[in-house]
Amino acid sequence: MIFLTIGTWRVGYNRLVEAVDELLSSGVITEEVIAQTGYSSYKPKHMTVIEFCSPGEFRNLISKAGLVISHAGMGTIIETVQLLKPLITVPRRRSLGEVDNDHQFTTAKQLEAEGKILVAYEVSELPAKLQQAKSFVPVQSNNDDKIVKTIQEFIERLAERKKTTLQDKSGPISKIWPYKILSCDDNDIKNNLTNIMEHFQKKGWHFDSVVFVPKAGIYLGRMFCELFDNSYEVNYITARRSSTESKNNWLKRLIFKKKWLANPARHLEVLIRLLKLCLGCRQKMIFQPNADFNVTNKSLLVIDDSVDTGTTLRMVSSALLDKGAKSVTTACISNHLLPDRVNVDYSVYRYKLLRTKNSRDYYAA
Predict the structure, then answer these.
(1) Which one-letter DSSP state was computed for residue 213?
(2) Structural domains of the chain, with CATH
(3) Distance (Å, whole) CA 38 – CA 52
(4) What is the pLDDT of residues 72-120, one digit of tens each?
(5) CB atoms < 10 A from the CB of 345, how many?
(6) Burial class (CB in 10 A: 0-12, 13-18, 19+), 34
(7) Are residues 196 and 346 in contact, defined by beta-carbon separation less than 8 angstroms?
(8) What's the predicted TM-score (pTM) here?
(9) CA distance 72 to 81
Protein backbone atom coordinates (compact mmCIF):
# COMPACT_ATOMS: atom_id res chain seq x y z
CA MET A 1 0.00 0.00 0.00
CA ILE A 2 1.11 3.53 -0.80
CA PHE A 3 0.12 6.33 1.55
CA LEU A 4 -0.25 9.76 -0.04
CA THR A 5 -0.45 12.66 2.42
CA ILE A 6 -0.50 16.40 1.75
CA GLY A 7 -0.98 17.77 5.28
CA THR A 8 -3.56 20.27 6.48
CA TRP A 9 -2.43 23.47 4.77
CA ARG A 10 -5.47 25.58 3.88
CA VAL A 11 -5.02 25.52 0.06
CA GLY A 12 -4.67 21.76 -0.30
CA TYR A 13 -2.31 20.30 -2.91
CA ASN A 14 -4.27 19.52 -6.08
CA ARG A 15 -1.16 19.21 -8.25
CA LEU A 16 0.22 16.25 -6.32
CA VAL A 17 -3.12 14.50 -5.69
CA GLU A 18 -4.08 14.74 -9.37
CA ALA A 19 -0.63 13.52 -10.52
CA VAL A 20 -0.82 10.38 -8.35
CA ASP A 21 -4.40 9.73 -9.50
CA GLU A 22 -3.25 9.91 -13.14
CA LEU A 23 -0.40 7.47 -12.43
CA LEU A 24 -2.98 5.04 -11.05
CA SER A 25 -5.20 5.54 -14.10
CA SER A 26 -2.32 4.91 -16.53
CA GLY A 27 -1.12 1.82 -14.67
CA VAL A 28 2.22 3.26 -13.59
CA ILE A 29 1.08 2.66 -10.00
CA THR A 30 -0.61 -0.71 -9.50
CA GLU A 31 -0.73 -0.79 -5.71
CA GLU A 32 -3.57 0.43 -3.53
CA VAL A 33 -3.23 4.11 -2.63
CA ILE A 34 -4.78 5.67 0.46
CA ALA A 35 -4.77 9.45 0.20
CA GLN A 36 -5.07 12.07 2.93
CA THR A 37 -6.16 15.01 0.78
CA GLY A 38 -6.85 17.79 3.31
CA TYR A 39 -8.37 20.86 1.68
CA SER A 40 -7.61 19.76 -1.91
CA SER A 41 -10.55 20.42 -4.23
CA TYR A 42 -9.54 17.74 -6.74
CA LYS A 43 -11.58 14.54 -6.24
CA PRO A 44 -9.50 11.39 -6.91
CA LYS A 45 -11.13 8.60 -8.91
CA HIS A 46 -8.68 5.76 -8.31
CA MET A 47 -7.70 5.91 -4.63
CA THR A 48 -9.25 5.68 -1.19
CA VAL A 49 -9.65 9.19 0.22
CA ILE A 50 -9.35 10.37 3.83
CA GLU A 51 -9.52 14.15 4.01
CA PHE A 52 -8.17 14.39 7.57
CA CYS A 53 -7.05 11.90 10.18
CA SER A 54 -5.97 11.91 13.81
CA PRO A 55 -2.26 11.73 14.75
CA GLY A 56 -2.74 8.08 15.76
CA GLU A 57 -4.42 7.19 12.47
CA PHE A 58 -1.74 9.12 10.58
CA ARG A 59 1.09 7.17 12.22
CA ASN A 60 -0.78 3.88 11.70
CA LEU A 61 -1.17 4.54 7.97
CA ILE A 62 2.53 5.32 7.62
CA SER A 63 3.47 2.14 9.50
CA LYS A 64 1.28 0.02 7.19
CA ALA A 65 2.53 1.66 3.98
CA GLY A 66 5.30 0.26 1.84
CA LEU A 67 5.91 3.74 0.45
CA VAL A 68 4.89 7.26 1.47
CA ILE A 69 4.41 10.12 -1.01
CA SER A 70 3.97 13.59 0.45
CA HIS A 71 4.76 17.26 0.36
CA ALA A 72 7.95 18.21 2.22
CA GLY A 73 6.25 18.89 5.56
CA MET A 74 8.43 18.30 8.61
CA GLY A 75 5.71 16.45 10.51
CA THR A 76 5.38 13.84 7.76
CA ILE A 77 9.14 13.57 7.29
CA ILE A 78 9.82 13.03 11.00
CA GLU A 79 7.11 10.36 11.34
CA THR A 80 8.24 8.54 8.18
CA VAL A 81 11.93 8.61 9.05
CA GLN A 82 11.19 7.36 12.57
CA LEU A 83 9.32 4.38 11.08
CA LEU A 84 12.12 3.76 8.53
CA LYS A 85 9.75 3.98 5.55
CA PRO A 86 10.85 5.08 2.05
CA LEU A 87 9.53 8.57 1.33
CA ILE A 88 9.10 10.53 -1.90
CA THR A 89 8.49 14.22 -1.27
CA VAL A 90 7.17 16.71 -3.81
CA PRO A 91 7.84 20.18 -2.35
CA ARG A 92 5.07 22.73 -2.62
CA ARG A 93 5.85 25.75 -4.81
CA ARG A 94 5.33 29.33 -3.73
CA SER A 95 5.08 30.47 -7.37
CA LEU A 96 1.99 28.27 -7.81
CA GLY A 97 0.30 29.58 -4.66
CA GLU A 98 0.67 26.24 -2.88
CA VAL A 99 2.50 27.72 0.11
CA ASP A 100 3.62 31.11 1.43
CA ASN A 101 7.36 30.53 0.89
CA ASP A 102 9.76 27.94 -0.55
CA HIS A 103 11.03 26.53 2.74
CA GLN A 104 9.96 23.03 1.62
CA PHE A 105 12.56 23.11 -1.16
CA THR A 106 15.29 23.91 1.37
CA THR A 107 14.14 21.10 3.65
CA ALA A 108 13.90 18.57 0.81
CA LYS A 109 17.33 19.39 -0.65
CA GLN A 110 19.05 19.03 2.70
CA LEU A 111 17.49 15.67 3.57
CA GLU A 112 17.91 14.36 0.03
CA ALA A 113 21.64 15.16 0.26
CA GLU A 114 21.79 13.18 3.50
CA GLY A 115 20.17 10.16 1.83
CA LYS A 116 17.10 10.22 4.07
CA ILE A 117 14.42 10.81 1.41
CA LEU A 118 13.75 10.89 -2.33
CA VAL A 119 12.64 14.17 -3.89
CA ALA A 120 10.59 14.83 -7.04
CA TYR A 121 10.96 18.55 -7.64
CA GLU A 122 8.31 18.30 -10.39
CA VAL A 123 5.37 15.87 -10.53
CA SER A 124 6.72 14.71 -13.91
CA GLU A 125 9.64 13.14 -12.01
CA LEU A 126 7.34 10.86 -9.99
CA PRO A 127 7.50 7.80 -12.32
CA ALA A 128 11.31 7.75 -12.13
CA LYS A 129 11.26 8.23 -8.35
CA LEU A 130 8.73 5.40 -7.97
CA GLN A 131 11.18 3.09 -9.74
CA GLN A 132 14.02 4.34 -7.58
CA ALA A 133 11.95 3.82 -4.44
CA LYS A 134 11.76 0.07 -5.11
CA SER A 135 15.44 -0.29 -4.20
CA PHE A 136 15.84 2.81 -2.05
CA VAL A 137 17.09 2.26 1.47
CA PRO A 138 17.05 5.44 3.59
CA VAL A 139 20.35 6.23 5.27
CA GLN A 140 19.95 5.30 8.91
CA SER A 141 21.70 6.61 11.98
CA ASN A 142 22.51 4.27 14.87
CA ASN A 143 18.98 4.76 16.17
CA ASP A 144 15.78 6.62 15.44
CA ASP A 145 16.54 9.33 17.98
CA LYS A 146 19.65 10.36 16.08
CA ILE A 147 17.70 10.57 12.82
CA VAL A 148 15.09 12.82 14.39
CA LYS A 149 17.83 14.87 16.07
CA THR A 150 19.42 15.47 12.65
CA ILE A 151 16.13 16.86 11.36
CA GLN A 152 15.59 18.99 14.46
CA GLU A 153 19.14 20.38 14.18
CA PHE A 154 18.39 21.30 10.58
CA ILE A 155 15.25 23.18 11.69
CA GLU A 156 17.37 25.03 14.26
CA ARG A 157 19.89 26.01 11.57
CA LEU A 158 17.06 27.39 9.44
CA ALA A 159 15.77 29.34 12.41
CA GLU A 160 19.25 30.74 13.08
CA ARG A 161 19.51 32.00 9.50
CA LYS A 162 16.07 33.60 9.70
CA LYS A 163 16.25 35.28 13.09
CA THR A 164 13.39 37.56 13.95
CA THR A 165 14.15 41.17 13.13
CA LEU A 166 14.00 43.44 16.14
CA GLN A 167 12.70 46.89 15.33
CA ASP A 168 12.18 49.79 17.67
CA LYS A 169 12.16 53.30 16.28
CA SER A 170 10.91 55.00 19.40
CA GLY A 171 14.40 55.61 20.80
CA PRO A 172 16.66 53.80 23.27
CA ILE A 173 14.92 51.47 25.69
CA SER A 174 16.27 51.72 29.22
CA LYS A 175 15.91 49.30 32.09
CA ILE A 176 12.97 51.39 33.23
CA TRP A 177 11.15 50.75 29.96
CA PRO A 178 12.15 47.28 28.64
CA TYR A 179 9.43 47.02 25.99
CA LYS A 180 10.52 46.54 22.39
CA ILE A 181 8.63 46.07 19.16
CA LEU A 182 9.27 42.70 17.52
CA SER A 183 8.35 42.34 13.84
CA CYS A 184 7.47 38.77 12.87
CA ASP A 185 6.63 37.40 9.43
CA ASP A 186 5.24 33.91 8.80
CA ASN A 187 8.69 32.30 8.96
CA ASP A 188 9.41 33.96 12.31
CA ILE A 189 6.09 32.74 13.74
CA LYS A 190 6.91 29.19 12.59
CA ASN A 191 10.36 29.41 14.18
CA ASN A 192 8.76 30.54 17.45
CA LEU A 193 6.19 27.73 17.35
CA THR A 194 9.03 25.26 16.74
CA ASN A 195 10.85 26.77 19.73
CA ILE A 196 7.80 26.16 21.93
CA MET A 197 7.33 22.54 20.86
CA GLU A 198 11.04 21.74 21.17
CA HIS A 199 11.08 23.20 24.68
CA PHE A 200 8.44 20.74 25.87
CA GLN A 201 9.88 17.83 23.86
CA LYS A 202 13.20 18.28 25.66
CA LYS A 203 11.32 18.07 28.95
CA GLY A 204 9.70 14.84 27.77
CA TRP A 205 6.20 16.31 27.94
CA HIS A 206 3.54 14.81 25.66
CA PHE A 207 0.29 16.49 24.64
CA ASP A 208 -2.83 14.89 23.22
CA SER A 209 -3.92 18.15 21.61
CA VAL A 210 -2.62 21.66 20.90
CA VAL A 211 -5.22 24.38 21.43
CA PHE A 212 -5.16 27.92 20.03
CA VAL A 213 -7.12 30.84 21.44
CA PRO A 214 -8.72 33.91 19.85
CA LYS A 215 -8.11 36.31 18.34
CA ALA A 216 -4.72 35.24 16.95
CA GLY A 217 -5.63 31.56 17.21
CA ILE A 218 -6.67 31.03 13.59
CA TYR A 219 -3.47 32.63 12.28
CA LEU A 220 -1.19 30.74 14.70
CA GLY A 221 -3.05 27.49 14.10
CA ARG A 222 -2.63 27.85 10.34
CA MET A 223 1.12 28.35 10.73
CA PHE A 224 1.30 25.41 13.15
CA CYS A 225 -0.56 23.04 10.81
CA GLU A 226 1.66 23.94 7.88
CA LEU A 227 4.73 23.32 10.01
CA PHE A 228 3.77 20.09 11.79
CA ASP A 229 1.17 18.52 9.45
CA ASN A 230 -0.73 15.81 11.34
CA SER A 231 1.85 15.28 14.08
CA TYR A 232 -0.45 16.92 16.62
CA GLU A 233 -4.20 17.13 17.04
CA VAL A 234 -5.09 20.82 16.67
CA ASN A 235 -8.19 22.47 18.12
CA TYR A 236 -9.48 25.99 18.65
CA ILE A 237 -11.26 27.60 21.57
CA THR A 238 -14.33 29.58 20.57
CA ALA A 239 -15.40 32.55 22.66
CA ARG A 240 -18.10 35.14 23.10
CA ARG A 241 -16.55 38.53 23.65
CA SER A 242 -18.35 41.61 24.87
CA SER A 243 -16.37 44.81 25.31
CA THR A 244 -17.25 48.41 26.04
CA GLU A 245 -14.06 49.57 24.39
CA SER A 246 -14.68 51.64 21.29
CA LYS A 247 -13.93 50.07 17.95
CA ASN A 248 -11.08 51.38 15.83
CA ASN A 249 -12.13 54.74 14.47
CA TRP A 250 -10.67 56.58 11.50
CA LEU A 251 -7.99 58.22 13.69
CA LYS A 252 -6.68 54.91 14.99
CA ARG A 253 -6.66 53.46 11.48
CA LEU A 254 -4.64 56.44 10.29
CA ILE A 255 -2.16 56.17 13.18
CA PHE A 256 -1.49 52.48 12.60
CA LYS A 257 -0.91 52.98 8.88
CA LYS A 258 2.22 55.06 9.49
CA LYS A 259 5.14 53.37 11.19
CA TRP A 260 6.52 56.60 12.65
CA LEU A 261 3.17 56.98 14.42
CA ALA A 262 2.49 53.28 14.98
CA ASN A 263 5.65 52.62 17.00
CA PRO A 264 5.08 55.27 19.71
CA ALA A 265 1.35 54.40 19.67
CA ARG A 266 2.14 50.79 20.61
CA HIS A 267 4.28 52.00 23.53
CA LEU A 268 1.55 54.42 24.58
CA GLU A 269 -0.96 51.56 24.69
CA VAL A 270 1.36 49.68 27.06
CA LEU A 271 1.79 52.73 29.27
CA ILE A 272 -1.98 53.25 29.50
CA ARG A 273 -2.51 49.57 30.29
CA LEU A 274 0.12 49.68 33.06
CA LEU A 275 -1.44 52.81 34.56
CA LYS A 276 -4.87 51.15 34.58
CA LEU A 277 -3.45 48.12 36.37
CA CYS A 278 -1.71 50.31 38.95
CA LEU A 279 -4.98 52.18 39.57
CA GLY A 280 -6.86 48.89 39.94
CA CYS A 281 -8.99 49.40 36.84
CA ARG A 282 -10.55 46.19 35.59
CA GLN A 283 -10.74 45.28 31.93
CA LYS A 284 -14.31 45.91 30.77
CA MET A 285 -14.72 42.72 28.84
CA ILE A 286 -16.71 39.51 29.14
CA PHE A 287 -14.82 36.53 27.78
CA GLN A 288 -16.61 33.20 27.70
CA PRO A 289 -14.44 30.42 26.25
CA ASN A 290 -16.06 27.27 24.94
CA ALA A 291 -14.37 24.01 23.96
CA ASP A 292 -16.23 22.62 20.93
CA PHE A 293 -14.15 19.41 20.98
CA ASN A 294 -13.65 16.45 23.29
CA VAL A 295 -11.08 17.24 26.00
CA THR A 296 -11.94 14.45 28.43
CA ASN A 297 -8.84 13.01 30.10
CA LYS A 298 -6.53 14.73 27.59
CA SER A 299 -3.26 16.57 28.21
CA LEU A 300 -3.58 19.91 26.43
CA LEU A 301 -1.12 22.60 25.38
CA VAL A 302 -2.71 26.05 24.96
CA ILE A 303 -0.75 28.51 22.80
CA ASP A 304 -1.37 32.26 22.46
CA ASP A 305 0.66 34.90 20.64
CA SER A 306 0.89 37.64 23.29
CA VAL A 307 0.00 37.48 26.96
CA ASP A 308 -1.06 40.73 28.60
CA THR A 309 -2.39 40.16 32.13
CA GLY A 310 -2.89 36.41 31.64
CA THR A 311 -6.66 36.67 32.12
CA THR A 312 -7.52 35.00 28.82
CA LEU A 313 -5.19 32.03 29.41
CA ARG A 314 -6.50 31.58 32.96
CA MET A 315 -10.12 31.55 31.79
CA VAL A 316 -9.33 29.19 28.90
CA SER A 317 -7.41 26.81 31.18
CA SER A 318 -10.25 26.84 33.71
CA ALA A 319 -12.84 26.14 31.00
CA LEU A 320 -10.83 23.20 29.64
CA LEU A 321 -10.31 21.68 33.10
CA ASP A 322 -14.03 22.07 33.82
CA LYS A 323 -14.71 20.14 30.59
CA GLY A 324 -12.64 17.23 31.92
CA ALA A 325 -9.12 17.87 30.61
CA LYS A 326 -6.45 15.86 32.43
CA SER A 327 -3.98 18.77 32.41
CA VAL A 328 -3.52 22.15 30.74
CA THR A 329 -0.11 23.63 29.94
CA THR A 330 0.21 27.20 28.66
CA ALA A 331 2.69 28.79 26.27
CA CYS A 332 3.00 32.02 24.32
CA ILE A 333 5.35 33.74 21.95
CA SER A 334 5.63 36.86 24.10
CA ASN A 335 4.73 37.41 27.75
CA HIS A 336 5.00 41.09 27.16
CA LEU A 337 3.34 43.22 29.84
CA LEU A 338 4.27 41.89 33.30
CA PRO A 339 6.19 38.62 32.75
CA ASP A 340 7.45 38.54 36.34
CA ARG A 341 3.87 38.54 37.65
CA VAL A 342 1.96 36.68 34.93
CA ASN A 343 2.48 32.93 35.09
CA VAL A 344 2.89 31.13 31.75
CA ASP A 345 4.55 27.72 31.59
CA TYR A 346 6.79 28.82 28.70
CA SER A 347 7.23 32.00 26.69
CA VAL A 348 9.71 32.56 23.88
CA TYR A 349 10.09 36.30 24.63
CA ARG A 350 9.48 38.74 27.47
CA TYR A 351 8.55 42.43 27.08
CA LYS A 352 8.25 42.11 23.27
CA LEU A 353 5.36 43.87 21.53
CA LEU A 354 4.65 41.57 18.61
CA ARG A 355 4.02 43.01 15.19
CA THR A 356 2.55 40.14 13.17
CA LYS A 357 -0.04 39.77 10.40
CA ASN A 358 -2.59 39.72 13.21
CA SER A 359 -1.54 43.23 14.32
CA ARG A 360 -3.22 46.45 13.27
CA ASP A 361 0.12 48.02 12.39
CA TYR A 362 1.68 45.11 10.48
CA TYR A 363 1.30 46.86 7.12
CA ALA A 364 2.40 50.26 8.41
CA ALA A 365 4.40 52.06 5.72
Answers:
(1) -
(2) 2-156 (3.40.50.2000), 165-355 (3.40.50.2020)
(3) 6
(4) 887 788 888 888 899 999 999 888 888 777 778 888 888 898 888 999 9
(5) 17
(6) middle
(7) yes
(8) 0.57
(9) 12
